[in-house]
Design brief:
Layout lengths: L4 H60 L1 H5 L3 H14 L4 E8 L16 H13 L3 E2 L5 E8 L4 E10 L2 H16 L1
Antiparallel strand pairs: 1-4, 2-3, 3-4
């Protein structure tokens, strides 16, 4: 065909534009998929970290509070729970300690409602004499063993969340996108 120069330029420009737009759209799609996969992987890693920490730290708290629970020292129990919550930067959301009577050990003026779900888990750990975890791993209860005989004196149960770490990871990913 006999094409005029402006027609050839117009056809070339149109093909180039289409190829460029296709490449940009494909790149955006791949970047989006990779970002979603990375976010899912990060959240899975965060869940694993928190679940592992929940079990270990709950068992540690149970050991630490053995004397306080055995003697009904609600002030020491409360102080320890506040300390752990601060130390974990909010990963531990709530906690409860129970004595052999299966009742929560609370300070007299404590008006905070007891988390019924972890209270039941604490009772189960007390009855079983072993660590108990919810199916997702974010609720953990451990028996409190006191003395050299290892006699069960009560139980501690905790509720954990990934929210602080997830929010931090989200902020990091937004920061990375702006770079």
């Amino acid at each position: 065909k006999n094409m005029r120069p402006h027609q050839l330029h117009s056809r070339f420009h149109s093909i180039f534009l289409k190829l460029t737009l296709t490449a940009v759209m494909l790149t955006a799609f791949v970047a989006g998929v990779l970002s979603i996969l990375n976010t899912m992987d990060t959240q899975e890693n965060i869940n694993t970290i928190v679940v592992d920490r929940a079990r270990g730290q709950t068992e540690e708290v149970a050991e630490t509070l053995a004397g306080a629970i055995r003697f009904g020292r609600a002030d020491k129990v409360s102080e320890t729970f506040v300390s752990v919550t601060n130390h974990t930067k909010g990963l531990m959301e709530s906690a409860v300690a129970i004595g052999l009577d299966e009742k929560p050990i609370l300070e007299k003026d404590d008006q905070t409602p007891v988390d019924r779900e972890i209270l039941e888990l604490a009772r189960q750990a007390l009855r079983d004499g072993s660590v108990v975890q919810s199916a997702d791993g974010f609720l953990v209860a451990a028996p409190v063993k006191s003395g050299e005989t290892g006699e069960v004196a009560g139980a501690v149960a905790t509720r954990w969340t990934t929210e602080p770490l997830s929010a931090h990871a989200h902020q990091d990913s937004l920061h990375a996108l702006t770079i």
